[in-house]
Design a protein that fits this description.
Blueprint lengths: L1 E10 L2 E11 L4 E6 L5 H8 L7 E6 L2 E2 L2 H4 L2 E4 L11 H11 L4 H14 L15 H13 L5 E5 L7 H16 L3 E5 L3 H7 L2 E6 L2 E7 H7 L3 E8 L2 H5 L4 E7 L2 E6 L5 H8 L3 E10 L2 H14 L1
Helix pairs in contact: 3-4, 3-5
Length: 299
């Protein structure tokens, strides 16, 4: 289990992270979200032992994180950290040795993962000769070669097409199921919703929202009604609790404050023509993120 307790970090007079605390249990995927400059990268570097916090502690399975403990951590950075003049095999061997892996184990793991990610044919190619997607695969493999107990993923799907995104997702879920603790950061909220059980949203280093994703969505009462067909939109707009109506492709999206006005909306829509869809859904994490971050900047 990773435990981050009350960490604060300043760069001279600039506050980067303020009194941040969270835990990531074994076999849990935790979301760390925020705009660029929110403090995510600083937090990752403190967890990795690359930066010292001004106050607070970070432990992995009860141990303070030092170079010995970092051998148990995998880290996929948003900016690729590959040595582009090396071949794929040289790069992976280099990272494996840094993690203290034996030559025999390295050979076994490299062969397995290159085959799993369908890039065995590039084993002796230089990194700079690979596509962005294949470079990202090498980056990911380098982070999981040593079977980490903690895996930090910062925008792991950069440069990947949908087929390869699925490939990555399958491996991430396998690692979760074997007990690996995972921190996941992405600006693509749909990935966070698919993966993360708990999350924290940072704005300028401070926590503005935290908790179990299901509870967060339940407490955020705004909802969306997806409607296909023709109905009196002006009447619906006048209903107390209706925020907005937008047309999207072949349907309308009615945003409501809560379900108090749901029956009234339904009564009007049901009198419309060719109504083939009336579906009520919770607000997406993307909407919640924009709302919470926007409120903070307005203050």
């Amino acid at each position: 289990m990773l435990s981050v307790s009350n960490i604060t970090k300043y760069y001279k007079d600039t506050l980067a992270v303020s009194n941040l605390s969270f835990e990531v249990n074994d076999g849990c995927i935790f979301g760390l979200l925020g705009e660029n400059g929110a403090g995510k990268t600083t937090t990752f570097r403190i967890i990795m032992g690359l930066l010292d916090a001004n106050s607070g502690t970070v432990t992995l399975n009860g141990e303070k994180i030092d170079y010995k403990v970092t051998d148990k951590i995998g880290f996929v950075t948003e900016e690729r950290s590959l040595l582009t003049k090396m071949t794929v095999k040289e790069q992976l061997t280099f990272y494996g040795i840094l993690k203290g892996m034996s030559n025999e184990k390295l050979e076994e793991k490299i062969t397995y993962w290159l085959k799993r990610f369908k890039i065995s044919e590039y084993e002796n190619r230089k990194i700079k000769e690979l596509s962005k997607g294949n470079q990202q695969k090498v980056q990911f493999i380098s982070a999981i070669l040593n079977d980490p107990v903690l895996l930090i993923l910062d925008e792991p799907f950069t440069g990947l097409d949908p087929i390869n995104v699925k490939m990555f997702k399958d491996v991430i879920m396998e690692m979760k199921n074997t007990g690996c603790s995972i921190i996941f950061s992405s600006h693509q909220m749909e990935h966070i919703e698919q993966f993360c059980e708990k999350l924290v949203i940072l704005v300028k280093g401070k926590v503005v929202l935290e908790g179990n994703l299901k509870d967060i969505k339940k407490k955020y009462q705004k909802q969306n009604i997806f409607i296909q067909g023709e109905f009196d939109k002006e009447k619906v707009k006048k209903i107390k609790g209706v925020i907005d109506i937008k047309e999207n492709a072949n349907q309308y999206i009615v945003k409501i404050e809560n379900d108090d006005c749901l029956d009234e909306v339904f009564n009007i829509v049901s009198k419309g023509k060719n109504i083939t869809k009336f579906v009520v859904e919770e607000a997406s994490l993307n909407e919640i993120f924009i709302d919470k971050v926007g409120i903070c900047y307005e203050k």
